[in-house]
C-alpha cells in the first residue's frame, strides 16, 4: 500500500459500528428498484462494493412511508413486506461479503414532482409553502414554473405524521440488520427545507432563527435515537447548496453553522455528512477548513467529506463544461484524514466505475479511466 494512502485504512468505531477503513460509498440515486422493491440486482450491486473492501456503504435515498416522500416509483422504499424483504437480502449479501451498510432515509419535501409525473391530489410537503427561490439549477423551466406556485404550509398533523414515518423507517432498518441510520438533510429536500431560511419563514416553534429552524430535524433525530437505542450510529447529510440554487448557502458564517448543527448533534447525530461539490473547498473566508472540517470542529461529532474524489470536476460541471478527467487527488484526501480534519471520505462516481475501489487504493493501482456511461451509473 502506498504510504500516501495509509490514512484511508485506519479503523474507526462509531458506537457499535466498527469500520476497517475510512472509505465510504456515497449515496447515489439509481432508480433501479421497480415498484420501490430492491431486487437481486441491487443486492449484487452493493455486495460487489462490500467485497471490494469499501468500509461502509450508504445506500441510495430510500423513501419513508409518506405519500409525498419520493416521486419516482423506481426509488426503493423502507416500508411494505416486499421492499423490506428485498432490503433484508441486501443486508445479508453485504454482511456475507464482510461489509457494513446504512440506509439513507429520504423525503423530498418541496422537490416533490421533480423526478417524475405525480398525483396532483398529493400536496408537496413544504414548511412555509415555498419551493425556494430559483437560481443556478439543472431543473427545467417548465418544472420550475409549476413548482414555484406556493402551496399550503405544513400543518402540525403533517409534521407529526412525517416524524412518525421517519421513526418507522429507522426501526424497520434496525430490525433488518442495517448497521446504522442515515438521514438526507441536504440539497433542499424536506429536512433541509426546515433548516434553510429561504424555505422556512414560519413564525411558530418550527421557524425563526437558525436554532429554531433546526428544531424539526433535531426532533426527528431524537425520536429515531429513542426508538433504535444507543447502539446504532446516526448519520446526517447536510449541504450549503440546494437543488433549487447551487449557489445558495445554508450558513454564511461558522457561528450560523454551529447554531444549525449543534442541536442536531445534541439530539443524537454521530456523523455529519457534509455534501459539497469538491471535498477540499474552503467553507468560509479566512480559513482553509472544508465544510466537513467545520462540522467536526463546531460540534465535536465525527465528520464525512464528499465531492469530486478522483475527478477533476464534478459530473454536473463536466456536462456543462466538457469531459471530466480522472485525477489522482487521493493524496490530498489522505493528508486531511491524517490531520483529522474529517474522519471519513465518501466516494460516489469512482465506486460506480470500480466496485473494488478500496482494493485499488490499497494496492496503489491506477484509477479507472473516465467513461461517462460508467461514472454516471448507466452501467452497473
Automatic annotation (TrEMBL):
InterPro entries: Aldolase_TIM, OxRdtase_FMN_N, Oye-like
Listed Gene3D superfamilies: Aldolase class I
Entry-linked SUPFAM superfamilies: FMN-linked oxidoreductases (SSF51395)
Domain NADH:flavin oxidoreductase/NADH oxidase N-terminal: start-end pairs: 8-366
PANTHER family, alphabetized: NADH OXIDOREDUCTASE-RELATED, OXIDOREDUCTASE-RELATED
Protein name: 12-oxophytodienoate reductase
Organism: Nocardia testacea
Amino acid at each position: 500500500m502506498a504510504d500516501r494512502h495509509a490514512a484511508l485504512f485506519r479503523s474507526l468505531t462509531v458506537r457499535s459500528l466498527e469500520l476497517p477503513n475510512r472509505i465510504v460509498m456515497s449515496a447515489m440515486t439509481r432508480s433501479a428498484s421497480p415498484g420501490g422493491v430492491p431486487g437481486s440486482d441491487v443486492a449484487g450491486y452493493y455486495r460487489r462494493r462490500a467485497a471490494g473492501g469499501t468500509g461502509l456503504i450508504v445506500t441510495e435515498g430510500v423513501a419513508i412511508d409518506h405519500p409525498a416522500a419520493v416521486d419516482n416509483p423506481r426509488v426503493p422504499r423502507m416500508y411494505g413486506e416486499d421492499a423490506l424483504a428485498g432490503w433484508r437480502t441486501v443486508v445479508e449479501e453485504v454482511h456475507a461479503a464482510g461489509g457494513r451498510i446504512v440506509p439513507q432515509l429520504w423525503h423530498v419535501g418541496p422537490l416533490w414532482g421533480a423526478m417524475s409525473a405525480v398525483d396532483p391530489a398529493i400536496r408537496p410537503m413544504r414548511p412555509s409553502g415555498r419551493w425556494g427561490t430559483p437560481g443556478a439549477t439543472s431543473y427545467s423551466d417548465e418544472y420550475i414554473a409549476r413548482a414555484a406556485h406556493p402551496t399550503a404550509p405544513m400543518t402540525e398533523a403533517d409534521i407529526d405524521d412525517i416524524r412518525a414515518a421517519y421513526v418507522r423507517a429507522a426501526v424497520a432498518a434496525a430490525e433488518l440488520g442495517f448497521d446504522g441510520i442515515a438521514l438526507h438533510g441536504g440539497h433542499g429536500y424536506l429536512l433541509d427545507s426546515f433548516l434553510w431560511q429561504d424555505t422556512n419563514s414560519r413564525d411558530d416553534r418550527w421557524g425563526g432563527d437558525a436554532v429554531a429552524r433546526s428544531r424539526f430535524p433535531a426532533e426527528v433525530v431524537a425520536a429515531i435515537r429513542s426508538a433504535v437505542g444507543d447502539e446504532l450510529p446516526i448519520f446526517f447529510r447536510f449541504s450549503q447548496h440546494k437543488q433549487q440554487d447551487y449557489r445558495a448557502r445554508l450558513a454564511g458564517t461558522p457561528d450560523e453553522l454551529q447554531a444549525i448543527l449543534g442541536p442536531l448533534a445534541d439530539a443524537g447525530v454521530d456523523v455529519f455528512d457534509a455534501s459539497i461539490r469538491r471535498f477540499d473547498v474552503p467553507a468560509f473566508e479566512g480559513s482553509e477548513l472544508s465544510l466537513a472540517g467545520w462540522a467536526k470542529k463546531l460540534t465535536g461529532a465525527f465528520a464525512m467529506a464528499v465531492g469530486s474524489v478522483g475527478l477533476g470536476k464534478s459530473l454536473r460541471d463536466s456536462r456543462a463544461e466538457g469531459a471530466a478527467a480522472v485525477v489522482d487527488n487521493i493524496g490530498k484526501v489522505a493528508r486531511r484524514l491524517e490531520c483529522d480534519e474529517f474522519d471519513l471520505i465518501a466516494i460516489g462516481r469512482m465506486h460506480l466505475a470500480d466496485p473494488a475501489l478500496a482494493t485499488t487504493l490499497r494496492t496503489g493501482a491506477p484509477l479507472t479511466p473516465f467513461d461517462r456511461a460508467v461514472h454516471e451509473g448507466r452501467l452497473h
